[in-house]
Structure formats: C-alpha cells, structure tokens
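Students often ask why we bother encoding 3D structure as a string. The short answer is that it lets us treat folding as translation between two languages. Here is a chain of 458 residues written in the first language.
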Amino acid sequence: MGDTPDTKEDAFEFNYNRFKDREVPLAQSEAEKSDRIITQYLQEKFNENSGILLDRKTFSGGVPKFTDVEKEMREAAQANWNPDHSHGLVSDAVGYVTSFISDPDAEKTPEQLASDANARALIARERDQTDVLNDLIKHTPSLKGFTLDDAVSIAKSDANGEIGTTIPDKFPEADANTAKALAYTMLHAHRTEIDEPTLKGTDFAEIARGYMHYSTPQSDAYNAWSAERTAQAVKELRSNPEFLAAVSQIKCPDNISTAEDVRDQAVLREQIADIITDSFAASYGVADILDKDDTTVVYKSAKQIDEDGGTMGYMTFKEAGILNDEVIALRYSPNYHLMDRNTYKAETDSEEAHFFIRAATEEVYHGIHQIQADKLVIGSLKEDDPIHHNATMGALNWIAYAGGTRSSFEEYSKQYIESEAKAVASTTADQIITLGAIVPDQSAPTADSLPTAGTTRP
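And here it is in the second language, the structure alphabet:
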C-alpha cells in the first residue's frame, strides 16, 4: 500500500496503521480524523449479523441519523424487569385473552412478585432511593426503626467529635460502622432536605463510603463464601475448551491490521464474556437472573470513549429491589488505546487477554453484587446470611457512589463495590493467564489460594 489509500479497505489499514509504532502520538486533529474514518468504514462494512455490534448511521432524506446501540440495549432490557412491558400488539392480545383463563402471576415466586411491585412503583415515579433505604432497614432487624432523625443525630455527634451514643442505645445489635454508613447514605439521599446548620456543606456520600470500609460484621463469612465460588468459576473457565481457544486468539492493538481483524476480535470477546457471565452466575447461584444475554461487547469509536471519561465497560440497572434489570456493556476499540497510548494499552496478546478477562469479570461481579442487593431490599435474605452484609454495602454504595473519572480514579477504585469487584476480577485474570501463557487446568485454584474479596490490588 502506498502513501495514499486506493480503496476503502486500504483507507482503514492506512488510518489504523497511522496509530501504530509511533513514539510521538499523532496530532489531535489527525488522530480524530483517522478515528472517524475507521469508525465510518466499520459502520458501512459490518452489521449485527457479522458479529460486531456498533452504533449505526443511516440516512433519511439525506440527513444522517445515528443509533446508539447501548441505549437500545438498556431500553430492550425493560422486557426483563417490567412486568407490564409491551411485546407488540399480537403478544399483548394473546396475553389479554389468556389472563381470563389463568392468573399470569400465579406461578411467580413471592420474590418476583415483590420485584414486580417495585418495578411498577418506579415506573409510576412512586419509588426512589429513599424507598430502597427504607426497605433495607425493614429487612435488617438490628437497624429496624432507623430514621432520618437518627441519621442527623449521628452526623451531629460526629461533627462535634462525640462518639455517637445514640447508636448502641437505640440499636444495640447493630454494628456502629454499618449504622454510620447507613446514616450518611440516608443523609446523602435526603441532602436537599437537611437544614441542620452544623451539617451544611458536608459531603455525606464521601463519609458514607469511608464507613463502609470499616464495617466488618459477617465479612469473614462472606469472604470465605465468595472465595469458594470464585475458585469454582475459575476452575470451570480453565477447563472449558471453547473459552481457552477464544482467549488464545486474542490480539493486542499492535497486532491488528485489518477491519476483519477488528470484527474477529469483537466476536472472540463476546464469546469470552458470555462464558465468564454464565460461569460466575452459576457459581454464585444467580443463573436464573443473570446470563450471557445480559452481557454485550460493543464497538465504540475512540472519540466516544474519550468523551465518556475512558470508560471501557459498565454494569447498569434501574434500582435495587428490581430483579432482572442488570445490563453489562463491554466496549472494544483498539484504536482508542493506540491513540492515547494510555495505561489500558496492552503491549502483548497475553496482556490484552488479561485486560479483557479482568474487565469482563469485574462488570459481571458488579451484576452479581447488585442481585444480592436486590434480594436484600426485597426481603429474601436473613441478617445471618453470609451475603447479607455484602448486599447491604452494595445497596448503600450504589446510592453514595463515586463515579470514575480520570481526576478521581483513586477515590472511585477504592470504594467498597469497586475494590470488591476489582479484587475478584484481578484474581480471575491472574489465575487464567500467567507469564504470557494460559494457565493449564492441572493447577486449578482452591478457595484457600485466592485473596479474599475486598483486597485492594495494585
């Protein structure tokens, strides 16, 4: 290929290769131009049937229209959690007729009926974060009766440097740090209503996240429970020929040259993510709620990822207390890593495989953690259940969440739910890929060989 591309295929390779093997990055304008050409070519060349999912560009009356596939994914997920979701006129008509013959809710579990009630309330705008907290309190005997006045009292005691004796006096069975994490999360949820002068300007969410780290009841029991399930999932992954074959074919950005390479890599990542999702969901006992259909690999342009703060994947949901609302998106854009030469960029194929396994596992674990919080808020968990404490911290942390931006990455990564997920994800990737090679199954891990959940890893 010469200095100027002759065909669209050459244009892709020309612009992609401009990012490679450069000690000095391209000028911003040149990088954005090449990224735009690469993305346009992929949009024209591939579609959903090809195995690469990306935003679509169509024309109506000569005017371009862009379709955000991630938005479509989130909207489509409503069919999973909204009990009154419309599936079309024919399906609705069938449902209307059969409702006279049998009760559509007759075979639903109490847990699902409670989830449906929460979903309907949310859609009617009759449910918000304060209701999540009220349900959490209702289903946690040691905190039953906890009110906003109690939260204000605890915060005032902290502000005055006092111990906060209202906690053991009114809630003698409650762990003090758990109660304080709840108090400050509640204050954060009601922050526009707080008029106590001594609390003006207080970052309630930040303080809540701090107390989550010091809250310890039942965490040892959960760590043992979680480590056993992570070990089981890793063992299954390392004995899965399809998974290992896909991992062995992963390429880092510098080893990709053509649009077909990008398409093939997206397909491999979808296979890997699907298997990780199903393995962890089965091991953690939530396969009836979370499965591979909830996880999708999406191609995004480097510009789109950069505008979204460099987010390479996420798990989203509607609200705690609603089952089947988890959506996991994993973004793939090799030219993004080449453009910025950022910390995500892998120099070898094994590093790239490690990065993707870690990213996929982290988001899947977030989904599992959220399902635990759903069950807590619904009332399916008893306080002595090994996962109750972890579910409590998850429900609180999502309300008092610190979003991940480049300027606040340390704060984001150290909060409870992120450090939990990142520990499990790092362990999983480490156990599958070591020193540039896939670890053979003969050395499958045991629960004792895995770091406990919540460990902060570099």
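Translate back mentally: The longest strand covers residues 327-332. Keep this in mind for the problem set.
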